[in-house]
């Protein structure tokens, strides 16, 4: 029989299992991830009563109403392409004009924000304009009913000025694929002839979105992402919810595009689109699915999907200097070592920090330290989940194998060392896992929101029955983890910063 796996035709014996086929053809499978199997598919397309209007300032969508004016707009919308904004007031924007056969009406109407309607200048249908309502208003504009309403892209209207141009007006086309498919994680499944099988998705990342690219590298560092939300138009993963990313590329979110939310309550969430969505300043479009888009259509909430990226990450943190040299050489990139330059030294910082920038400059500086000077920390995620998330964010452990803490002060007399935190990020740190009778040697603590110095991070050098690792009383302290100080080789009194890595118990 002949089947297709990830776009490649493969001959296999009837009755073979996926496990046998993968093994015989050297196909890697990420254990536990969803495999999509398409048995039969038929693609159809249809048009909604929605039109995408593209201007030189951005795009918006008009949802048409079942009115005479709405039906007319559908017929003559192309005539408004290349027309300009003739006038703009505090209440509306007028585009045009074109001749129509509308019967003029002098009836006064109330228009709401985002309504779209025709204006007959001088009550003459030969000068028909499209009007975009920005505020609630009353007027007699020559027509009886509205065309429809702007449903997406409303943020574009304040940017539009007189003289701006309508570049295109296109009906929103929806492609639907009727598929006979199933998903599985069972490698004992036996494919049938002509079935199409998908084991992973491939994301081609944009070189002009270095921060969002690193965000996706962090989300996919284990080779897969978890699907936390599924709608008709997208699937999303909330693995880095709350992680800040700057907007770098607010382009149209096309089908198969990948974006990172940069503002709002879902900041840090990664979206993969099954349908086109309009441009928004709250998303940075950072890549495109070039393989496995069919698998995206099959995913359910809770699924794990294997992910590959192009290019692959060039984050070198946690590697030995020698390991990094070999990795960079394969990409034709020059390494400049600093700090501890020995082959065995562990890389804790790199410049540039972003893969996209390294690929452009073809050079990267790597800062190494002795492995014995990297401090291991165990975090209590089950006891203090919010504080652990804060700690990982401040140190960089949320998306890096090596974190960093800058020493604020060390007080041998009170037996603690304190590190800089983030008071803004700590604003929601409610008390959790506070000490009761004693703060133990090696405890790592964070001052919670009940105290002025919220967010301060500290390590207790000796046990204390009154104060936590940051010098606060117990009710102002959250214990986030511990360090085995007997293994620490550095002197906190002489260092400006420390490097840490998380260990699991």
UniProtKB/TrEMBL annotation:
TM helices/strands, residue ranges: none
Xref: InterPro entries: DUF8179, Methan_mark_3
Domain of life: Archaea
Organism: Candidatus Methanofastidiosum methylothiophilum
HAMAP family in the cross-refs: UPF0288
Name this protein carries in UniProt: UPF0288 protein APG10_00263
Putative peptidyl-prolyl cis-trans isomerase domain sequence ranges: 375-502
Protein family (similarity comment): Belongs to the UPF0288 family.
A matching Pfam family: DUF8179
């Amino acid at each position: 029989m002949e089947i297709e796996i990830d776009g490649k035709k493969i001959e296999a014996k009837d009755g073979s299992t996926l496990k046998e086929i993968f093994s015989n053809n050297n196909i890697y499978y990420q254990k536990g991830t969803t495999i999509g199997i398409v048995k039969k598919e038929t693609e159809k397309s249809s048009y909604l009563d929605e039109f995408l209007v593209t201007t030189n300032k951005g795009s918006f969508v008009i949802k048409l109403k079942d009115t005479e004016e709405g039906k007319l707009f559908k017929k003559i919308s192309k005539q408004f392409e290349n027309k300009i904004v003739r006038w703009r007031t505090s209440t509306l924007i007028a585009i045009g004009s074109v001749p129509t056969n509308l019967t003029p009406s002098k009836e006064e109407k109330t228009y709401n924000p985002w309504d779209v309607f025709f204006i007959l200048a001088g009550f003459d249908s030969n000068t028909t304009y499209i009007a975009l309502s920005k505020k609630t208003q009353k007027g007699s504009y020559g027509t009886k009913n509205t065309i429809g309403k702007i449903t997406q892209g409303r943020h574009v209207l304040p940017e539009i000025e007189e003289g701006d141009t309508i570049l295109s007006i296109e009906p929103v086309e929806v492609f639907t694929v009727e598929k006979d498919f199933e998903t599985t994680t069972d490698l004992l499944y036996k494919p049938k002839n002509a079935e199409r099988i998908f084991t992973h998705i491939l994301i081609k990342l944009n070189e002009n979105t270095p921060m969002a690219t690193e965000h996706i590298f962090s989300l996919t560092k284990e080779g897969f992402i978890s699907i936390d939300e599924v709608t008709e138009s997208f699937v999303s993963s909330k693995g880095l919810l709350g992680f800040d990313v700057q907007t770098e590329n607010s382009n149209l979110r096309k089908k198969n595009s990948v974006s990172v939310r940069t503002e709002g309550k879902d900041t840090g969430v990664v979206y993969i689109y099954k349908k086109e969505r309009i441009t928004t300043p709250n998303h940075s479009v950072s890549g495109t699915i070039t393989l496995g888009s069919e698998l995206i259509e099959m995913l359910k909430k809770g699924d794990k999907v294997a992910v590959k990226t192009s290019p692959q990450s060039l984050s070198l943190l946690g590697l030995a200097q020698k390991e990094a040299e070999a990795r960079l050489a394969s990409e034709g990139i020059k390494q400049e070592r600093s700090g501890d330059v020995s082959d065995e030294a562990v890389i804790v910082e790199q410049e540039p920090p972003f893969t996209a920038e390294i690929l452009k400059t073809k050079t990267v500086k790597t800062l190494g330290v002795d492995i014995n000077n990297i401090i291991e920390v165990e975090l209590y995620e089950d006891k203090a989940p919010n504080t652990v998330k804060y700690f990982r964010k401040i140190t960089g452990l949320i998306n890096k194998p090596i974190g960093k803490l800058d020493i604020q002060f060390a007080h041998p007399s009170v037996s603690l060392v304190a590190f800089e935190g983030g008071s803004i990020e700590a604003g929601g740190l409610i008390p959790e896992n506070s000490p009761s009778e004693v703060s133990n040697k090696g405890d790592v603590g964070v001052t919670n929101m009940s105290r002025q110095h919220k967010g301060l991070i500290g390590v207790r050098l000796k046990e204390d029955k009154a104060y936590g690792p940051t010098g606060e009383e117990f009710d102002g302290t959250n214990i986030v983890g511990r360090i085995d100080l007997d293994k620490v080789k550095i002197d906190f009194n002489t260092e400006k910063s420390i490097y840490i890595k998380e260990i699991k118990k």
